[in-house]
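request received
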Amino acid sequence: MSGIATLPDRAISVGRLRWRRFRTHRAAVASLIVLALLVLFCLAAWPLKTYLGIDPDATDLLARFDPPSAAHWLGTDDAGRDELLRLMVGGQISLLVGLLATAIGGIFGLLIGVTSGYFGGRIDAALMRFTDGMIILPLLPLLIVLGALDLTKLGFTKEFATSGAAGFWRIVVIISIVDWTSIARLVRAAALAIKERDFVRAARASGAGPFYVMRAHVLPNVATPIIVAFTLTVGRVILLESVLSFLGFGIVPPTPSWGNMLNNAQELVNTAPALAVYPGLLIFITVIAVNFVGDGLQHAFDPRSERS
Amino acid sequence: MSGAEIFALDGVSVHFDLGGGGLFGRARKTLRAVEHVSLTIADGETLALVGESGSGKSTLGNVVGGLQVPTSGTLRYRGGPMDEAAWKRARRDIQMVFQDPFSALDPRMPVSAIIAEPLLIQGTATAAERRARAAELVRQVGLPLDALNRYPHEFSGGQRQRIAIARALAPDPALIVADEPLSALDVSIQSQILNLMQELRERRKLAYLFISHDLAVVNHLVDRVAVLYLGRVVELAPRAELFATPSHPYTQALLAAVPRIGRRRARGASSIKGEMPSPLAPPPGCVFHPRCPKAQAVCRTKAPVLEPAPGRAAQSAACHFKE
Amino acid sequence: MTRFILRRLMQALIVLLVMSFVIYGLIGLMPGDPLDIMIASNPGATPEVVAHLRAIYGLDQPLMLRYWHWLISALMGDFGFSRIHSQPTLEVLGPALLQTCKLLLASFVVSVVLSFVLGIVAALRPGGIVDSFISLFAFAGISVPVFWLALMMILVFAVNLHWFPASGMANIGDGGFMDQARHLIMPVTTLALANTGGFIRYVRASMIETLRMDHVRTARAKGAGEGRVVLIHAFRNALIPVVTVIALNFGTLFSGALLTETMFAQPGMGKMIYDSILGNDFNLALTGLLFATVVTLLSNLLADLAYGWLDPRIAVR
Ligand SMILES: Nc1ncnc2c1ncn2[C@@H]1O[C@H](COP(=O)(O)OP(=O)(O)O)[C@@H](O)[C@H]1O
Ligand code: SF4
Ligand SMILES: [Mg+2]
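response:
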């Protein structure tokens, strides 16, 4: 038929175009590399542990604040434990909390956002009131209260309440309880916009129900803003974890996390300043790299954004 | 000319509740988008729905397409009542094509999936059957076969509209509701799509509910025309009669605005002043009276009913002084 | 407009009511209850005495009822007694609130001025060298753990350089304005640095947007000097969204204050809440959290109203 303009033989896929745009964001590319190195660093705990033959949790009160040596490459901490190994293991914990809490909170926000945006009306109004209420809460004090809760009063056994696992899961859960609002709002706005698009109406006219529409149309179309929001959330969650663990309401020693390694920071500042620098520096580098990657993704996904 | 009745609306109204009320709210508002409309569409027939923007055309089209539940009135499908089971069949038998080809296709889906989507939703074909069907349809709407594996953003507006039409054809429907399928396209493309729709109608014995704000477009394709004003059908007539001897003053005014060779100019209705009133507060009596050049006192109080014009059984108009 | 204000006020009140219940319930779930502490200090108490005490304090009643009693007295202005301070909680709260206000206000002014200057400069040449550096600075501000930043400030300026005192609000025996100011410099700088990052990004984005707008372009084309264009046209337009966003971020600001106060031993609201939770001071924790919520609610309300006033379309909804 005459009206069809000839199409280019091979069109570039959306993914390829995005990768191209992402690559123009130099800080984001550099950050991606930094993040990869950080992950490798944290995973290096296992080989290093066997190589040096050290248990990262083993305390040695005769070797407190030892300077760097062949046995302890970064020296030892206030309990005579190997600082480098603890930084590596602590990093695993901090990153894991960041990813897990983001994922759980993200799924929660996703469900709330999709439901709110797709069904609209009363459901939407109620859910958004709830979300607004969540947003205006004083976040940190609330997290501290949640971190201080007595788990036995919630029906958990005493053994569990004082275990390391409880500390880990508690912080994952409380952060995901409070940090889902931005994703919920984002998804809601996107779902609102998408359900009015004609391709959704065409699907509904063919008999599609709400679940089909969400799975086949809404979710794939909100995927990009969600990826960006997820990335930025990971950075925020890592910060929150470090703060809570630092204040003593998060990961409980002897399990290390970058936050709780600064627990007695005031003492460290005077006796072993380097020990006060390392964990914080690692948090800082991780979070800034995550944020740059998020910015790069945003740039890659939004064709209108300009940056170089 | 036309066969058995596919779909019928009887006294259908659609009102939108615009909120209000509540503790601190304003007065409750109701928008009367469609008011007491009765229409039928038969196999192989093309019925045009014409009216200004905001006259309720799309809303009416949505009712037929099953996207809008009417506030009151009854629907009939293939002669029977429109119950759950009837809708299930009707979802296959009635498909929609929309105005904006850029909004009509999911940017995340390849064309093959878009075209076969109705079959997937209705669960009537296996994956292999769906692929075969998509390939067959892509050819029928005049696109190259390699379009199947591409994504919507690689196509022009006209090509996208062809894809949308192919999707509508997938479940082998009897009726396609086309809501201004040409208005977003370039003029040069419009006639191609119009030709395609005409060709498909001939080949597949399709019926169309063709929605347009432009009488001129309608003249090429349709069998009958319903003129909509403020949610009401003010005139319903076979195409030839409507164009030759418009009965309602509003139709006369609309025709006067259409440039066409050899058309008799309607007396005293060369233009209509003002704008269509808001469907939030329709005027009393005949809703057209504030703009009608022929309005009399009775028009302000008594609403006219849609009845055959004097001496023309096939042509009805809702006017106290119809011609 | 009045109706809009009324509706928002109602909403805020409802949120506050719900929150007070949630916080009340949560505080009850913290380790120990007021009685445990009493019993711990009086080992001779028999089970009968304990039960009797529980009844006196109403601890055997269901949560709803206890909350109801608390709410009634709170509405009459009685928020209970602070255990660690041995004072009514409101009297502990007053000076703490004042101290936090000083810190917040000072750091807020610093970060707003800093972010406007840097944000505008960055927006003039998006993608340029200067913009890149400012962006890096902004990202650093968003990404730095506030408590660690405070720690580093202490390490550098107090421990190594001895420029400023590491903690407290005044030296004993001094307490004059200059002394107080010296104690505030590091906390204010820390908090300001942490907040500036986010603000810069808003100002920059908003400025770039307005500089692209037609009437600014026209003004530029008509030959208005670069400086005047930027300052008068763009700045005014960029102001609205920025002010709103900043006002809406008050909650974040408060979290920052909690950390800064804790790190520098400033006796403000944040440290008070932290200490009360650590010290099982239920009444004080409850009162502090509630006031923190009220303050955040109020600032959000003001931001909303300001926005509704500047952009009437929003208020209608
Ligand atoms: N979902 C809806 N909610 C509220 N009002 C609507 C809705 N859909 C349509 N309307 C209103 O109904 C009237 C008719 O709209 P529509 O059917 O789209 O007209 P047309 O297609 O003829 O332009 C308009 O006044 C429109 O604003
Ligand atoms: S009824 Fe009266 S106002 Fe209405 S169209 Fe006819 S003449 Fe005009
Ligand atoms: Mg329409």
